[in-house]
Amino acid sequence: MLRLNKLTKTYKTGDQALKAIDLEIPEGQVMALIGPSGAGKSTMIRCINRLVEPTEGEVWLAGTELTHLGASALRQARREMGMIFQEYALVERLTVMENVLSGRLGYVGFWRSFLRRYPQSDVDEAFRLLDRVGLLHMADKRADELSGGQRQRVGIARALIQNPKLLLVDEPTASLDPKTSRQIMRLICELCRERGLAAIINIHDVALAQMFVQRVVGLRFGAIEFDGAPDNLTPDVLTTIYGEEDWEATIEKVEGEEDIEAAE
To answer: Closest Cα partner for 192 from 82, 57, 29?
Structure first.
């Protein structure tokens, strides 16, 4: 469904953020992207939807090659890629409902969006999504009145109202407390299963990644160091990705959290 072919990003300084990345993600698979800061995780996500322009290589989404599309064709292709941001990227003065409906901008155009003239079908879908993410009762609240976890739920609903084929999720739990982080990760993975969505989740919390996703890819210095099941993230593998640390403690934490999940 998504295929990266020798995807490379080299900055003007000569620094290589991505080094000939080859990667395939089938329909419906949720993948976590882990690695130290500066490994290229955010750059990879942004090269896929061309918020950052790749230097070389190809990005294929559902049979369409994205890296050579013109502006108009790229706008249409971006409809199929929902983006969920670390800092939420909400318009603070707008309501929750208005922020969710802004995800339809690629379909209704700027002026209809600016004048709040959305089709009734879009409004109905926004209400359904707000109900699904647990914020129906806050539809008329301004975004600046929300907590971090609530803002992230609005961002999830806004991405889903695009009706995408792929979710690109950039550090969704970085600003959240541990309990809210688990709730947000669980919600994203449940929604992907319900909708048959593929997702790439850039995440720093290795334990959260191991708890919730089907596949983990580890980056280091712009190259793939690991690609496999969460259970295969051994202390040796984590040392290769991040460097020396007491990784046994991380694995024990995951096992303990799984017991809590089962109890819930």
So the answer is: 29
Tokens 């209704």 belong to: 108
CA 204/CA 8 separation, integer angstroms: 22
Domain range summary for the chain, segments of one domain joined by +: 2-263
d(CA 24, CA 2) in angstroms, rounded, equals 6
With respect to CATH, is domain 2-263 assigned 3.40.50.300?
Answer: yes
Verdict on whether the full-model pTM lies above 0.90? no
Cα distance between residue 112 and residue 86, in whole Å: 28
Round to whole Å and give the CA distance between 105 and 90: 14
Alpha helices in 110-221 (DSSP H): 110-114, 120-132, 148-160, 178-195, 206-212
Per-residue model confidence as pLDDT tens digits over 153-209:
999 999 999 999 999 999 998 888 999 999 999 999 999 999 999 999 999 999 999
